[in-house]
Amino acid sequence: DAxxxxxxxxLIKTRGQQVTLRCSPKSGHDTVSWYQQAxxxxxxxxxxxxxxxxxxxxxxxxxxxxxxxxxxxxELNVNALLLGDSALYLCASSPVGGGYxxxxxxxxxxxxx
Amino acid sequence: AQSVTQxxxxxxxxxxxxxxxxxxYSSSVSVYLFWYVQYPNQGLQLxxxxxxxxxxxxxxxxxxxxxxxxxxxxxxxxPSVHISDTAEYFCxxxxxxxGNQFYFGTGTSLTVIP
Lengths: 113, 114
What we know:
The complex is a heterodimer of chains A (113) and B (114).
Chain A: E1 5-7, E2 10-13, E3 19-24, E4 29-37, E5 44-50, E6 53-57, E7 64-68, E8 74-78, E9 87-95, E10 103-104, E11 108-112
Parallel strand pairs in A: 2-11
Antiparallel strand pairs in A: 1-3, 3-8, 4-5, 4-9, 5-6, 7-8, 9-10, 9-11
Chain B: E1 3-6, E2 10-14, E3 19-21, E4 23-26, E5 32-38, E6 44-50, E7 56-58, E8 64-68, E9 73-78, E10 87-94, E11 103-104, E12 108-113
Parallel strand pairs in B: 2-12
Antiparallel strand pairs in B: 1-4, 3-9, 5-6, 5-10, 7-8, 8-9, 10-11, 10-12
């Protein structure tokens, strides 16, 4: 049983560019959450998707947007990249209907130069 | 609002010695508590969780944690650590009504010394 997968593993972008990160949830999971983990910090909640809609959002600007597809996979888009967006981006999936357990993927390391 | 405080940013401990990693939380609603471990350049792996029931929770790799509602704590313990336990440990709380947002602490770096 494949766990949560994310692509790409690493990414280098220039300030002002746009980036798209992808996530496939664990089999049987329908809820996807995205987190940003800056170096030396704990993960910070960006938003959560359920039934193809954003259900909850953390304290992140509108430059951060997302999408969930009918097969439950998800994308995180960040526009107008800033140096401060450099971080590990983690995707987590939850069982059908939500639930209180989240399974994390290996993350995408984004470096903005 | 919910938040988590991990009281120690770094904990060095000798191999085969016991260890305790401290976590305190604040919440105005029912809480669900978690400990995750993160090895270098990897994602988060669930060690254990408290959802309800017994306040002593046992997890993987010999770790356990105790939920103490009066002290709003959820400390992680292991009676004898191994070199392979060297990693970053995160405490997290969830339970906000209508959502499953996790609030993480800033992490504790556990270094096991041979």
